[in-house]
Prior knowledge:
Shape: globular
Structural class: mainly alpha
Distance between the termini: 29 Å
Low-confidence stretches: 1-7
Amino acid sequence: MRLFSFTHTLQASPALAGGICLVLSEVLFAGVGALVKHLSTDLTQAQLVFFRNVFAFMFLLPWVFRVGVSGLKTSYPGLHLFRSITGLIAMYCFFQVLANMPLAPAMMALLTAPFLVPIVARIWLKEHISRITGIAILVGFVGVTLVLEPDKTDFNIYIWLALICACLVAVNKCSIRKLSGTEPSARIVFYFSGIASVVSFFPMLFDWTPISTASWLALITMGLFATIGQLFMTKAFQLASPVKIGLLTYSSVIFAAILGYVFWQEPVSAGLILGTVLIIFAANMTIRQRWL
Length: 292
């Protein structure tokens, strides 16, 4: 009975269902970030990007065999290509950031993207931004400032790379929203993983280092997490507008902080805690469109 009631609630509230899918995707993406940081000491960034995409692509092959060639047909090859290239450039930038910054601040620097998502969605998708959403964005910005502690953080090249990545991610999330009107989640992820695998193969050839058995297992796990995370994220933006649920992306910083503390003894500062509270409050505002 409780399961039926919960399922009915999700069906009645696409925003809630989309929010849950997005949080689940961010749990997995935090895991991907931790694996990238761990593997960066032994493998090159070109290898990490290629294998993250190729293993994700391989995990989708059962779906490809099930739907056949007809299931891969799309009316938006150009938009798939645009989404894949912008996502791949963002990935190269972000993997460099993860390798050279503490995990939680690195994730948070990337997560300036949700501030840009409503702006891109308004311009590109013609979606309305409510007054509460606008204020929630400002509250979220304050939270990010507390987490990054700009008075203690040098604005080096990795911060700039994270900001470039955030801009590309905002465009990427809105392109998913644009595609999701006619394209199923698996097809969107399939084209992204396939195109990204082909493009990232050639840089990897010129930046190769031997890979241990343990690293192979970690790479496979990273691909699995990334695939499931992409499917959850794509489903989330099919269910609800990025304007309404985009700020829930910040939940990944909580998981990243936990992983950073456990595996790298990265400190959990007062700014991180207070900033995260503000971000959760802002996310609640934007998804419920209420002050409390």
